[in-house]
Write a structure and sequence with these properties.
heterotrimer; A: mainly alpha; 2 domains; two-stranded antiparallel ribbon; 73% helix; globular; C: alpha+beta; Rossmann fold; OB fold (Dihydrolipoamide Acetyltransferase, E2P); six-stranded mixed sheet; 8 helices; 20 strands; 23% helix; elongated
Chain lengths: 308, 285, 372
């Protein structure tokens, strides 16, 4: 009588299944590994090389790229001076991404709640409505936002038409414009995970809360928010991480003056012809992303432990 | 019988009113307004764009009359036509290969007992969604330039390969969803009736999976059409896609033709997504 | 109670063996959470038999069926089909076809395409497939539905398509996994008769899985009663009903009274037992545990009220009297506290049947059996 040993037939069948699975997974895994993942190693390598004259790299190892991130070499006496311009860009990016996350949360939460409380048959329709803009071209969406924010754009015209202001507000090409643009871009990313969490909310719990003399605010804080917490965390990550690496939004709405990390990296591979520096900047960005993901992973597991 | 005494009638009305008010327990103050405002804000810019693409006037804000002249101008523009054709070419190739790869991957990872390395496989398949696009863009550029140096091979194949890679997770999602809705019983019935594993796949699994595969293909197509950053970095000269063209045109200044082209692109995306949603709705049965 | 019991068939155990399972074990999972679905099962199913696997859910009957079909591999043991070892063969090679519980009809094919699927997979020429499909359609009386899609059919029609589809390739064995479970009562009764005659007509060995003991008794040549992964008894419906060898089998099939008793000794082919209230009686020995504690099984219809001057074998207080039309069901409370149900078919004139009356009963010869 065997308990844990398998018949030869079962072992053979398992082996065949494993082989089939490997064969089926091969194309997708190979493509993504070679084109998206392995190159990250090349980027890491490049960050330690010397920039070529016309772009590309020269195979001489140097930590210059990383030094350049924080310091500038004085051309006359060769000393290193602290240069905060790149740091500023990173700080601005973190700030903007973080701010956009909060903004998206403040707008997205009521919206997700609104959809979750609609009758079941209608919900798919509302979700479709929220996600549809996501599938249109980001460039075009940002361009449309530019049309609204510019001096001759809808906002200024309507404000002036109503008489609230005399001259157009210079919204475009400011941090504010980028901020608005980021929220606009990533709002569906916040709403969807929030909705997924809120949909599971049993509204009898809410009724119980009211029944126990809690007012609306308390119900929100003590009953609804904790249940929505996984959705809140997921939504924040889905906005913050792409927001950190945004390119189009700051390029169009920041007008080349309000650079974010994405623009800076792109420039290094374009006009500045400094691939190693661009690679280093990209790796530093990746480090920030990893930190954010670790915080996310920790809060998820803490949440699991708290409820488990 | 006798009419309800007036006192009782009043009490009933009051009770009804109280019931109607308290039924709205679910609503939070201001949330409904916020919800509507959010949807309004999401669509307003796009709606403005579309409306003004039909504006006869050059101005992007003053409406004169309905006109299709910018659409005509856009279609006649060689740059736009070539860019559109390049976009479609790349999207078709990328869709083809990514959908096949995604279908195979979905078959391997769905409806099976947990296997070693499942999390890792999942992570790799979804990687393009997890890393900021700019990082993927420059890494891929670095890889391709290295390969070009070593082999001397150039061409639009690099761009197509890059698109294929990031289209895979988008094609994967609907296929996997459809597969999860299919129980294994039908395939067992096929095997019971003498179908070999390949025959079972061909006659049973594949026909039933087809709506999911189509949905995945459409999604991949839309995503490839709309890509900007990776294409910006990786595309060589002469490989301008429509979004890259629009980006370049925007740098030179806003023109109404851009509105027209943008509206067309948006229209195509919306149409495909609409079809996708309808197909998925039918699949749920 | 049950309607007709199958008329005594010829003894099927003289026929050649079709399915033989030896030492068959199937466990799911590993280590502590492992579940044993089948525990060293031995079974021999004969040619041209209507064989039923009967038992409550979780007893392993469906697992056994799936092992025969090939959808699962046994953890240990062997299965032979018509002399050939099929233990490791994949399902698409075994000449065995299944009628699934939810029919598993292919939704993207018509009725005809469904029925012809097996033959198509075997590579038969299309002319042969067409004529066979027509044959099957008339066998299950669905000629009018030939080109319908399967979701346009009623439950009963779908069931018949599933049947036709499984019979079309003329398998050696047909497996039926609770195929009548989803049908309403009237349809079910009709299908039971249809299935039975189909089996006789085609001569194919049917292995039928059900948890409904009435169904099993009505249709089968032989029944295997299962519980917890083991086969408790195999026999004809009459054998299972009249001579259960296991308390669970007796309890599961039909109504039965089970009284606790102690064995006192044997007298020929009878055993003398002492009941809880001290009364002794004779009961037929069954070869089950014949020492110490045992159970006495009595079918309600083998007991009747003592009349005239008959000496009662048992006496109890009448708690409930149920008039069934053809008989009276008396619920007596014995001195031991146990309940005894008596089906008295004859006249009740002259018997005191007032509530609380003391009623004596006599047992038909061989009506009492000793069980473990």
């Amino acid at each position: 009588m065997s308990d844990t040993s398998l018949t030869l037939a079962e072992q053979e069948s398992r082996r065949r299944r494993r082989q089939t699975r490997r064969f089926l997974l091969a194309p997708a895994l190979l493509i993504i590994l070679t084109i998206s993942i392995m190159p990250l190693g090349i980027t890491a390598l490049y960050s330690f090389l010397t920039p070529g004259t016309y772009g590309g790299v020269i195979w001489e190892f140097t930590p210059d790229a990383y030094v350049q991130f924080l310091f500038e070499r004085d051309i006359f006496d060769g000393t290193l001076q602290f240069n905060d311009s790149y740091l500023t860009i990173y700080m601005r990016s973190i700030g903007l991404a973080f701010g956009a996350t909060i903004g998206a949360l403040l707008i997205g939460f009521p919206t997700a709640y609104f959809i979750a409380t609609k009758p079941r048959e209608q919900r798919n329709f509302w979700l479709f409505l929220i996600t549809l803009p996501f599938w249109t071209n980001l460039l075009i969406r940002t361009y449309a936002m530019l049309l609204i924010l510019r001096d001759e754009g809808l906002i200024n015209l309507s404000l002036m038409g109503v008489g609230v202001i005399d001259r157009p507000l210079s919204i475009l090409y400011t941090d504010t414009a980028v901020f608005i643009g980021l929220i606009y871009t990533y709002l569906p990313f916040m709403v969807l995970p929030l909705y997924a969490s809120l949909e599971k909310l049993d509204f009898r719990l809410v009724e119980a809360g009211y029944d126990l003399y809690a007012n609306r605010f308390r119900v929100l804080r003590h009953i609804i928010a904790p249940i929505a917490k996984p959705g809140i965390i997921a939504g924040c990550i889905l906005v913050f991480i792409p927001g950190l690496g945004a390119y189009i939004t700051p390029a169009l709405l920041g007008g080349g003056k309000k650079l974010m990390i994405g623009n800076m990296i792109a420039i290094q591979f374009g006009s500045s012809r400094n691939w190693p520096f661009g690679s280093a900047a990209a790796l530093i960005l990746m480090a920030l992303v990893v930190i954010a993901l670790l915080i996310y992973a920790r809060s998820v597991s803490k949440g699991a432990r708290a409820h488990g | 019988m006798a009419d309800t005494p007036p006192l009782a009638a009043g009490a009933t009305a009051r009770a009804t009113r109280r019931r109607i008010r308290s039924r709205d327990l679910k609503a939070m103050p201001g949330f409904k307004a916020a919800g509507w405002a959010c949807i309004f804000a999401l669509y307003l810019p796009l709606v403005v764009l579309v409306i003004f693409s039909f504006n006869d006037n050059r101005s992007v804000v003053k409406w004169t009359e309905f006109s299709l002249r910018w659409y005509e101008a856009a279609i006649e523009n060689d740059g736009i036509r070539n860019a559109a054709w390049m976009s479609v070419k790349v999207a078709l190739v990328a869709t083809f290969f990514s959908t096949i790869a995604a279908t195979m991957a979905a078959l391997a990872t769905t409806r099976t007992a947990a296997f070693r390395g499942q999390g890792l496989a999942y992570g790799i398949i979804n990687q393009p969604l997890m890393i900021p696009e700019i990082v993927t863009a420059i890494s891929t550029l670095s890889l391709f330039s290295l390969v070009k140096q070593l082999t001397g091979v150039t061409g639009v194949g690099y761009l197509m390969a890059a698109h294929t890679a990031f289209c895979i997770p988008f094609a994967y999602m609907p296929i996997r969803a459809r597969l999860e809705d299919m129980t294994l019983t039908l395939e067992q019935a096929g095997a019971d009736l003498y179908a070999t594993p390949w025959q079972t796949f061909r006659h049973i699994t594949l026909p039933l999976l087809m709506p999911g595969i189509l949905a995945g293909a459409m999604l991949a197509f839309v995503v490839s059409l709309d890509d900007v950053i990776i294409t910006l970095m990786v595309a060589g000269p002469g490989e301008t896609t429509l979004p890259i063209y629009i980006l370049g045109a925007l740098r030179r200044g806003i023109t109404p033709e851009i509105n027209a082209v943008s509206t067309i692109l948006v229209g195509v995306s919306v149409l495909l997504v609409l079809v996708l949603f309808l197909v998925q709705g039918k699949m749920k049965k | 109670m049950t309607s007709e019991i199958a008329k005594a068939p010829e003894d099927t155990t003289t026929r050649r063996s079709m399915i033989t399972a030896r030492d068959l074990t199937k466990t799911f999972g590993q280590g502590e959470s492992a579940v044993t679905a089948l525990d060293n099962v031995e079974i021999e199913i004969r040619e041209n038999e209507f064989f039923t696997l009967l038992g409550p859910s979780g007893c392993g009957k469906t697992t056994l069926l799936r092992l025969i079909a090939g959808f699962e591999l046994p953890t240990s043991g062997t299965i032979e089909l018509d002399g050939e070892d099929i233990t490791a063969l994949p399902p698409h090679v075994r000449p065995v076809n299944t009628v699934f519980q939810n029919y598993a009809l292919f939704p993207h094919m018509t009725v005809s395409e469904n029925i012809g699927f097996g033959l198509k997979m075997l590579g038969k020429p299309s002319g042969e497939i067409d004529s066979r499909v027509r044959e099957m359609l008339s066998l299950v009386q669905l000629e009018a539905m030939a080109n319908r899609r399967t979701d346009q059919l009623s439950g009963g029609q779908q069931q018949r398509v599933a049947l036709a589809r499984a019979l079309a390739p003329a398998p050696k064995v047909l497996l039926l996994d609770e195929p009548l479970a989803a049908l309403d009562l009237k349809l079910r009764k009709n299908m039971q008769i249809e299935l039975k005659s189909l089996q006789a007509e085609t001569g194919i060995t049917f292995i039928f899985v059900t948890h409904d003991q009435e169904e099993a008794l009505t249709m089968s040549d032989r029944i295997a009663v299962m519980r917890d992964g083991q086969i408790l008894q195999i026999g004809t419906p009459k054998e299972i009903y009249d001579k259960p060898t296991h308390r669970f089998v007796a309890d599961f099939i039909g109504d039965i009274n089970i009284l606790e008793a102690e064995v006192e000794g044997t007298e020929g082919d009878q055993t003398r037992v002492r009941l809880k209230d001290g009364t002794t009686m004779l009961a037929r020995s069954t070869g089950a545990d014949t020492q110490g504690h045992c159970a006495v099984a009595l079918r309600p219809e083998s007991i009747r009220v003592a009349q005239g001057g008959e000496a009662p074998a048992l006496t109890g207080q009448l708690e409930n009297l149920v008039y069934m039309g053809s008989a009276h069901n008396l619920h007596l409370r014995l001195g031991s506290g146990e309940e005894l149900v008596v089906r008295h078919g004859g006249s009740t004139d002259g018997i005191d049947l007032s509530p609380g009356a003391q009623v004596g009963v006599v047992i038909a010869p061989g009506g009492a059996r000793v069980l473990a």
